[in-house]
Amino acid sequence: MPDVKRGSMDLVKLTRGQSGQHGIPMPLWLQGALESAQLAIIVALLVMVPVGAVYFSGGFGNQGFDAAARLAGQAWLLIHAVPLQVEVLTGASSGDIQSGLLSLIPYGLTLIPFLFAWRAGRRLARASYADQLWQALLGALAVYAALGLATGYICSTANVSASLAAATLIPLLPIGLGLVVGARREAGSWGRLIGVDAVAWMAKSSQYSRWTGSYVWSALRAAFLAIVVLLAASALLFAVNLAVHWADVVSVYEGLKAGPMGSAALTLAQLGYFPNLAVWTMAWSSGSGFAFGVGSSIGPLGTVVPPVPAIPLLGALPVGQLSWGVLALILPVLAGVLAGWWFLREGENHFDEWLAIKVPQRWISASLSTLGLGLLVGACAGVFGAVMAWLSSGSAGFGRLTNLGPDPLTTAAWLACEVAIGVVLGHAVAPWLEGARQRSSLDEDFEPFEES
Hints:
Helix content is 64%, strand content 7%. By secondary structure, it is α+β, with helices and mostly antiparallel strands. It folds into 2 domains: 24-200, no CATH class; 205-443, no CATH class. It has a 4-stranded antiparallel sheet with strand order 5-3-4-9. Strands 1-2 form a two-stranded antiparallel ribbon. A two-stranded antiparallel ribbon has the order 6-10. The longest helix is centred in the middle third of the chain and has 38 residues, at 207-244.
């Protein structure tokens, strides 16, 4: 069997079975279909474990195992970002029915199918030429769409249902993204993945186009860096706040009396929403805040929240006037400072070079280029923040809980302004920071000569 370099996207057309005889290789579309079916079954089994544990511990009362299986299927759909239509009987005597859309997606649990799809994408990339990978991906997506359709049809009940179109198409988003990212990781570059040499394509463009592209690309990366740093700091802030209010969280657990299995399943569900809560904390630290129900407002300067459901994590909500809340507004500015410093070290400020040629006064050209950089990076960070705020928000069904999460436009405006200020400050002081760092490095490397 010829030697195949890992990640080279080569294809061995003839394989040897266990008997050592040559055989016809599996078609790529069929291999993709099998990988997709395996992925869906593994995720379904992982969902069935906590649901089955609650069922066998008596958590479903007199309901049969079919009710638990349908609940697992509905959880499978929600994990894949499929919204569910929920109907609840609010009054036994009056027969009033409230209906709403459950669209708050637990992105921490959505990472499970994404990571399995990432693994499947790497396996499919190793078996494909660059111009044939689409066959494996198409087979995988077609099978997953069929499984989503079947799940949406079988697991829909009178109280909880999913649109068949949504159950078919929406799961393809996290799965398709995982497949592409995994294939890109195995291929080593986008050019080898899609068969197009991006470097050669860019070489045909003009010098000004290349400079503009490098400048904008570096600005986008700087904005992404600012958002990642801010999100990490927000997650740490949320963890610290959760530790401070841990006694309140434990008291809610004790009040629920859900038992060991029920408490474990509830904890797992709450862990799935940790990425959402990190984004909400990011919006909170920006000053825009977020909502937990219609008419509520949770921000760094104060919180107005009506009574909330008995969910343990909600015991960590900040309440009342916070004297230290204004300090949280520093986090987006500091993230912008790091982004501005990184941009200077990247060395792609071609806009500043162009202005230095057009404007003889250096202090004017440097000020204009730094201001323009701050506006561009701030706007990009605002767009990233708005997308994250939109994805993390949603509805928990009906009533006041139809409005959960930050407002995308308000979050974008606050983040854009604060990150822009930080970028201007960071890019302005970066030359002195770089000079101090280089002088410190030279001092460490310098060894004085001593005569013997």
